[in-house]
Design goal:
Pfam families: p450. The protein is mainly alpha-helical and 347 residues long. 53% of the residues lie in helices and 5% in strands. Helix 10 packs across helix 13.
């Protein structure tokens, strides 16, 4: 499902012989998701510009589909991060909005459903499509989200390859500096970042905004405004907001976001793994090699002993002064997974 352009990327380097590749590829791009990088003036300004355009669109329309527009914001931000100047501008232009449909619409959901439950049928239809693409000298790599996204990613990477030094700040540009002889491999890596970053970002923002916009959570908005007003002296008159380094230190804002990710994690379902051939002993139980195992954020986030009244959205739980309790909650907080395969975006 996550193998693009017939190339394995960091996420799909799962076999024993791929472990070194996974570690190496991860190190190449890990810095792009650190706070120090994201808060660099040129990166932060790009994020703010997209946010300003989104706010203008909201103010111009009495009724707006926030799910759709938050996903426009997400894809513009993520693709500008990954492809630099070749990122999308769906907030301002209808071009590339079809990519959001392929990522987040009915087509995407139905294809994923077929991938999970009718794999053989999907493989048959895709084999036929691959044959026709081969006859037309087009990329034959299967992309569960369709050829438009497939083509956009590859064309963007090839364009960057014409002058990678000019686009060195982008993720694709950095990858060209170390693996320049494999544009399809770079495109596969970049596509993984795109797919992983758009739906998760858009969904997380949408569910959180909906939750705190309902009347019973007006007090959350009021506390947020109060906290933001308390940093009045730190506001940047040019951008109309505070620097990211200041916003990052606001405890209630942090609690609101943490609770949103706990209450409705963007990836709540099981994340499947296969036990190595030699098997494993887990909590005294032998797991045979080849066994499919999984864990899911939804279940971990609803252990009542850790999160009392777990179905309630309650940012205050993250403001407890009980350090032991807070440590226990953080240990069970799993929207980004954990370990060597954890999402790079958690930083």
């Amino acid at each position: 499902m996550f193998v693009y352009y017939d190339q394995r990327n960091t996420f799909t380097s799962v076999h024993k012989q791929d472990i070194l590749q996974h570690s190496t590829r991860k190190k190449l791009v890990a810095d792009r998701y650190t706070k120090s990088y994201v808060t660099k003036p040129n990166v932060a300004d790009m994020i703010r510009q997209h946010a300003e355009v989104l706010m203008k669109k909201i103010q111009q329309q009495p009724i707006i589909d926030m799910y759709l527009w938050l996903h426009y914001y997400a894809i513009d931000t993520v693709t500008n991060h990954v492809y630099g100047a070749y990122g999308t501008k769906t907030l301002e232009d209808e071009a590339h909005r079809d990519l959001v449909y392929d990522l987040s619409g009915v087509k995407h959901r139905s294809r994923l459903y077929f991938t999970f439950y009718f794999k053989d049928l999907l493989l048959l239809t895709e084999t036929i499509k691959r044959f026709y693409r081969w006859l037309r000298n087009q990329p034959t790599g299967f992309h569960v989200r369709g050829s438009r996204l497939n083509n956009y990613g590859l064309e963007s990477v090839k364009s960057i390859g014409n002058d990678p030094d000019m686009h060195a700040e982008s993720t694709a540009g950095k990858l060209y500096s170390v693996i320049s002889g494999n544009p399809h491999g770079i495109a596969a890596e970049c596509m993984d970042h795109l797919v992983a970053g758009v739906d998760t970002t858009g969904d997380a923002m949408c569910i959180l905004m909906w939750r705190i916009s309902t009347p019973e959570f007006q007090h959350v908005q009021e506390k947020l405004f109060s906290e933001l007003f308390s940093i009045d002296g730190e506001f940047d008159p040019r951008s109309g907001t505070a620097p990211f380094t200041v916003l990052d230190k606001l405890p209630y804002l942090d609690a609101v976001i943490l609770e949103g990710l706990r209450w409705r994690a963007p990836v709540p379902m099981s994340l499947f793994r296969m036990c190595p051939p030699e098997g494993r002993i887990v909590e005294g139980h032998h797991i045979p090699g080849g066994t499919t195992v999984s864990c899911q954020a939804y279940s971990l986030h609803r252990i009542p002993e850790v999160f009392p009244d777990p179905d309630k959205y309650d940012p205050e739980r993250w403001l407890t002064q009980d350090k032991e309790k807070l440590s226990e909650m953080k240990a069970h907080f799993w929207p980004f997974s954990s370990g060597a395969r954890a999402c790079l975006g958690q930083k």
